[in-house]
Amino acid sequence: MRLGSLRGQRGQSVVELALVLPILLLLLLGMVDFGRLGAAYLSLQHAAREGVRLGITGATDGEIVERIQESAAAVDARQLTISIAPPEAERFPGAELTIELGYPFRPVTPFIENVMGSEATLRVRLVSRVE
């Protein structure tokens, strides 16, 4: 093998890396974003379930909100929007208790941000009968 032919191929690896690396990083960040999205959604579902369990046993709205905020571990509880219906005075056995949670999700991957917007709102709604 001639020395001149090896010198011409040394830069080829750097060029290939420069072409492939941005795509790999984008895929990696996309997987991280979808993982964050899944964790946030599961956390909202868990928090809504905990709030409904407490609410159907006769708890006040304040107690329900506190339980929901404690149970939402993977999200910032201060950014949660919590809606509880019907009001406490209208809850009687057999009536439906509805809890809706909303949470703003911001992706970190620029490509995903272009596709779904700079912020998406995750929503969870759970309905159960009062005991």
Automatic annotation (TrEMBL):
<dbReference type="Pfam" id="PF07811">
    <property type="entry name" value="TadE"/>
</dbReference>
<dbReference type="InterPro" id="IPR012495">
    <property type="entry name" value="TadE-like_dom"/>
</dbReference>
<feature type="domain" description="TadE-like">
    <location>
        <begin position="11"/>
        <end position="53"/>
    </location>
</feature>
<protein>
    <recommendedName>
        <fullName>TadE-like domain-containing protein</fullName>
    </recommendedName>
</protein>
